[in-house]
Amino acid sequence: MQILGIDIGSSAIKGCVADCKTGVLTGGHFRIPTPADTSPHKLLAKVYKLVSHFKWQGPVGFCLPEPVRNGVVVRSLHFSPQWADVNAAALFEEMTDCPVAVINDADAAGLAEVQFGCARNVPGIVILLTVGTGIGSAVFVNGQLLPNTELGFIPMEEGLTAAELASVKTKHDEGLKRKKWAKRLEDVLQKYEEIFHPDLFVISGSLSHKAGKTFQYIDIRTPLKPAHFLNNAGILGAALHAGNSIPLPETHS
Question: Name one GO molecular function term (predicted).
Fold first, then answer.
């Protein structure tokens, strides 16, 4: 089954058609910058432009960097505060005139990696982290998702959160050398080890493209892998979530 996946990120909005039976992204990707004004009205205009590019008629999966429950944004942590308590699924469905499902972006990336990527068939606790503008998280126990964990907000040293201490944005803002930044990320991973004792860490987001250059400086007990789908994991996971959530039309023999 082919489903359009849309990843609404803090820096860009990306889309591609996904084959949910094989985990393959088909056709071309399309990407537009996320507007500085992320209020629902402004963001919907950009999303409409992206969806229109595909001339799509069928199920659409969306992911965004906010906790989402049953299609509703529980609270707005990264976008405009106006998104809090908004039924994003209803808005996107009205805009696209297509059946829609919405999920947190890190949870979406985790679904892609657990179903088709480097965390496939891994027992126990798997933690996927999207390390980019912030730090998003997806926690799986024996393949089952514990949604909306937001581990990037766990307190670290000097009153900073994990994301404030070790995101890619922090690295750039503070001009940190890779080795020093990697040690900060190591501190975050060790904190998660103390809490969860995971069996695998998967790193997605912008860090996944050059993971080896950073991983060489990180010393932790838990196996650490870059996401198989790199920064496209959210697109595939959004489509997979839609495939699992949207009822198929009835067929009559």
Answer: kinase activity
